[in-house]
Amino acid sequence: MTTGHNVHLLPQTDQLRAIHTIIRDRDCPREDFVFYSRRVIRLLLEAGLDLLPFTKKDVTTPVGTTFHGLEFATKICAVPVIRAGEAMEGELRHVHPGIRIGKILIQRDKRTKLPHLYYQHLPADIAERHVLLLEPMLATAGSAIAAIDVLRDAGVPENHIIMVNFLSSPEGLRRVATERPHVRIVTSAIEDRLNEHAFMIPGIGDFGDRFFGTTDSGAVK
User: Are strands 66-72 and 7-9 parallel, antiparallel or unpaired?
Assistant: First the structure.
């Protein structure tokens, strides 16, 4: 599918496909899943940070000459969607130490099947920041839209939100593009489709369960 101007797909290199082959395997040991997922997460975060605005900055090098460089032009923060989004938090702290972190907990109501906000705690000045929204799985986009709306209600302009996402479905991407068209999305893979149970195909299982070790593989056997 075409990704659209606000969807930034990582370069689909042989190395990335090889990593996906490891972590999509239902028999992948958890330590391998975590290790190789973190490699992809680092790529996603670097790509997301690269979408932020920069300004020019000159520095003097050790040999006394001037390097015409860049620096971030805005304050930033990150907001993981609990729990799977927290898998990205540690890697982000490695590439951007000291970054402010908010939290959002959204879960789907078992009766209505609609996303419900249970918890939010955001930096007081979040409306003045660009936000990296950490949400590994974008399937139906129900939870993603709800998380985006939490940020918008807190005063964050839609075009200041960058969703850092591990896997996306075509259906989820289309919904975000239609309903929240100014949000940018960085993802490592666009899946074929959703099945009748709204699981992504070919899929990866439950990312949070597999990363944090609450199931053996996250796959239905």
Answer: unpaired
pLDDT at 5: 80
- Selecting among 30, 42, 100, 108, the annotated active-site residue is 108
Q: Does 218 have pLDDT greater than 90? A: no
**Whether the Cβ atoms of residue 139 and residue 199 lie closer than 8 Å to each other:** yes
CA pair distance 117, 214, nearest whole angstrom: 23
Catalytic annotation present for 108: yes
**Torsion sign across C-alpha atoms 84, 200, 184, 40:** positive
Task: Please tell me the pTM assigned to this model.
Answer: 0.92
* Active-site annotation holds for 27: no
Average pLDDT over residues 89-110: 91
What one-character-per-residue DSSP string does 152-178 give?
HHTT--GGGEEEEEEEE-HHHHHHHHH
Active-site residue 192, yes or no? no
Q: Beta partners for 185?
A: 7, 163
Distance CA 172, CA 160 (A): 20
